[in-house]
Amino acid sequence: MPLYEHVFMARQDVTAQQVEQMVETYKGVIEQNGGTIEKTEMWGVKSLAFRIRKNRKAHFTLFNLDAPPAAVAEMERQMRISEDVLRFMTVRVDKLEAEPSVMMQKRDRDERKDRERGRDRDDRPGGGFGGGGFGGGGGFGGSPRENSGERVVAASGGEG
Predict the structure, then answer these.
(1) Fewer CB within 10 A of the end CB, N or C, for the chain?
(2) Distance between CA atoms of 53 and 50, rounded to whole angstroms?
(3) Cα-flanking dihedrals φ and ψ of residue 88, to 5°?
(4) What is the pLDDT of residues 80-133, one digit of tens each?
(5) Is the whole model's pTM more than 0.70, yes or no?
(6) Cα–Cα distance between 35 and 150 in angstroms, integer?
(7) Which residues contact 85 (CB under 8 A, 6 or more apart)?
(8) How far, in Å, CA of 12 to CA of 132, rounded?
(9) DSSP state of 34
């Protein structure tokens, strides 16, 4: 049977439980027509590049399918009927990826970076912005004189 990657976007005001119910419904359609879903990934709510039917965000879900074309066509037909599905795309592939998709890898990488940044911020004085505040020598604004270590009178009249 041919292999497919299928991504669909559900409206932002649909709950995660409703998205899971939609996933189960579409899995049933594929299985009734002789196919299987090898992998399902829920990517979560993501911002859209432009508004689609007055929505700025959507729930994204990926299916890796091993199904006959008739099963995919039936699933797409039901998605077109559903008001909760904003868009979908099915692409035929030569082989299915067993490892997590790029979107899931990106999420893991971002979570690790956030954890690392949190530790770095706590270790540095001034909250990780290069010293004591925004203008204090970290490269975030300030004049070259401020960064050279000279005392400069601040705009409020006190010493800086």
Answers:
(1) N
(2) 10
(3) -150, 160
(4) 999 999 999 999 988 887 777 777 777 666 777 777 776 554 454 554 445 444
(5) no
(6) 72
(7) 8, 9, 10, 11, 22, 79
(8) 41
(9) T
Domain of residue 74, CATH code = 3.30.70.60
Domain count, the chain: 1
Position 6 confidence tier, pLDDT thresholds 50, 70, 90 = very high
Question: How far is Cα 155 from Cα 31, in angstroms, rounded to an integer?
Answer: 71
Kindly state whether residue 62 falls inside one of the protein's structural domains.
yes
Q: Report the C-alpha gap between 42 and 19 in whole angstroms.
A: 9
Q: Which domain holds residue 38?
A: 3-94
Q: What are the residues whose beta carbons fall under 8 Å from the beta carbon of 44, sequence distance 6 or more?
A: 59, 60, 107
Give the Cα separation of 69 and 3 in Å (integer).
9
Give the whole-angstrom CA distance, residue 29 versus residue 23: 10
pLDDT value at residue 17: 92
